[in-house]
Amino acid sequence: MGNIMNETVLVLDFGGQYSQLIARRIREQNVYCEVLPSETDAETIRSKAPKGLIFTGGPANVYAPDSPKCDPEILGLGIPVLGICYGMQLIAATLGGHVAEGGSANKEYGKTNVNIDTGCVLFKDFSPENICWMSHTDYVEKMPEHFTRRAFSDGCPVAAMGDDARKIYAVQFHPEVVHTDNGTSLLRAFLYDVCGCSGDWTMSDFTERSIRALRERLAGSKVLLALSGGVDSAVAAAMVSRAVGRDLTCIFVDHGLMRKNERRQIEDVFGTKFDSKLVVVDAEERFLSKLKGVSDPETKRVIIGNEFIEVFQDEANKLGRPEDFYFVQGTIYPDVIESGAGTSGKGAVIKKHHNVGGLPEHIKFKAVVEPLRDLFKDEVRKCGFELGLTKEIVMRQPFPGPGLAVRVLGDLTKDKLDLLREADFIFRDEIARAGWDDKVNQYFAVLTNMRSVGVMGDERTYDYTVALRAVTTTDFMTADWAQLPYDILQRASTRIVNEVRGVNRVVYDITSKPPATIEWE
Ligand code: XMP
């Protein structure tokens, strides 16, 4: 849909690890912002009429031949600019200053004491000696003409500089990370005092405007959506449903690999609280027969992905010709950035195997509609609340597309899946009761394919081992095992062996990622 808000700030990505974080921090200040590749030309930027520009950090040396540069004309557009770290060095080098290759005396990494000129518009709320997060060796040795030095540190003769007339500012440290004291106030001052933003990016506004835009585009057409049970597709469904009501049909494929009660929840919400049509496809047998005897994880994924497409296609054909339908997808902004469409893709990692989907490539719909394309995950959740979805759906932890198929190790049977569903339900229940569901990012049970000897009421047993997994993570690329209190583990273990037939042993996974992955398969 493109940006439907008024004000935009653009972040030019020079390959720094914090580029997405900067964008999120800006949106937290109620200003819409997009990440663009560093090589975006001045004309493209002018056409987007941004209120301000931010140049991110990056690992390169500005004078290296292959280092990312920006179109120098950008600095002459009259748009306020804030350079951060590499962004600062690039501004200095581009406007006639000089960047020195630092040595051990200049290298600063971590929390650093920085002397601040609190008279600068950006530093109103800073202390004269402010703790800032540094990560650099090179430094600005000579400022360009018309710039004033606004901060320095032991390793950095110019830790901040600004040209008030041209509204170009730059800092060597990282205001976007929490380790910089008053970092948020710097970003806020740039957005509001320098760029003159009014802060029109709020989720309630966005939600209302999106609904209106969707209604204008789609009302009277046939619209289709594949509900997966995950947060993104649920929020997309709720939004499109508010926009076009019964013109929308949601298809939920129950592949028999869902967690306990999940299908019922979907039926409760989308079958009753929203006006759209809901088609629930009971495809358990179809999936299980295709998966029979298959124990290799990647093969399971491929089978499930393909079967999903077939089942969906069969259902869609019952409703009419696909080319008459708009197809709604719950793509979110990090997917857009990671696919390389948003940025230069430098350093971006794509997880290809992850989503069961890829539907539009197989089916020729009229067009694909992505109403959440501009949102970060936390914004999607806020939007979900705006639309009246409950915490149960909006705060749901991530669940892999292939579902419990990759949590029953080895070959699958309905009995094993049922057993896992019960064990998993108990573990999640105990975590929630203890108030730990907000403290861990993903937690679940795994049915190992190991059986061992136990004793229950004088009887010898030879039953399965269930493994419990709980992790904390921000990006799911790396994760720590969660240090759950023993009493949660104890209650979960006791209940699982008592309440789930076929399990006589429970273990807790204490491996981080890497070297392990979050899922066991
Ligand atoms: P791993 O196991 O790779 O998981 O550490 C990282 C995150 O991705 C999820 N995951 C998947 N999601 N399809 C999905 O939609 C998949 O095949 C898949 N495999 C892993 C996993 O739950 C975790 O959040």
Task: Give a description of the structure.
With 521 residues, the protein is of the alpha/beta class. It has three domains: 8-194, Rossmann fold (3-Layer(aba) Sandwich), CATH 3.40.50.880; 203-394, HUPs (Rossmann fold, 3-Layer(aba) Sandwich); 413-508, GMP Synthetase, Chain A, domain 3 (2-Layer Sandwich). Helix content is 32%, strand content 24%. It has helices at residues 19-28, 42-47, 86-94, 183-194, 203-218, 231-244, 262-273, 284-291, 297-319, 333-338, 359-362, 377-386, 391-394, 414-433, 486-499; strands at residues 8-13, 32-37, 52-55, 81-84, 98-100, 108-116, 129-136, 139-142, 148-153, 156-163, 168-171, 222-227, 248-254, 277-282, 325-328, 367-369, 442-456, 459-472, 480-481, 503-508. The strands form four sheets. The protein has a nine-stranded mixed sheet, with helices on both faces. Strands 14-13-12-15-16 form a five-stranded parallel sheet, sandwiched between helices. Strands 17, 18, 19 and 20 form a four-stranded mixed sheet that branches. Helix 5 crosses helix 6 and helix 5 packs across helix 12 (377-386). The longest helix is centred in the middle third of the chain and has 23 residues, at 297-319. It starts with 7 loop residues before the first strand and ends in a 13-residue tail after the last strand. Residues 301, 353-355, 398, 400-402, 442, 476, 513, 517-519 line the site of xanthosine-5'-monophosphate.
Secondary structure layout:
Blueprint: E1 8-13, H1 19-28, E2 32-37, H2 42-47, E3 52-55, E4 81-84, H3 86-94, E5 98-100, E6 108-116, E7 129-136, E8 139-142, E9 148-153, E10 156-163, E11 168-171, H4 183-194, H5 203-218, E12 222-227, H6 231-244, E13 248-254, H7 262-273, E14 277-282, H8 284-291, H9 297-319, E15 325-328, H10 333-338, H11 359-362, E16 367-369, H12 377-386, H13 391-394, H14 414-433, E17 442-456, E18 459-472, E19 480-481, H15 486-499, E20 503-508
Parallel strand pairs: 1-2, 1-3, 3-4, 4-11, 12-13, 12-15, 13-14, 15-16, 18-20
Antiparallel strand pairs: 5-8, 6-7, 6-9, 9-10, 10-11, 17-18, 18-19
Helix pairs in contact: 5-6, 5-12, 6-12, 8-9, 14-15
Bound molecules: xanthosine-5'-monophosphate.
Xanthosine-5'-monophosphate binds next to loops.
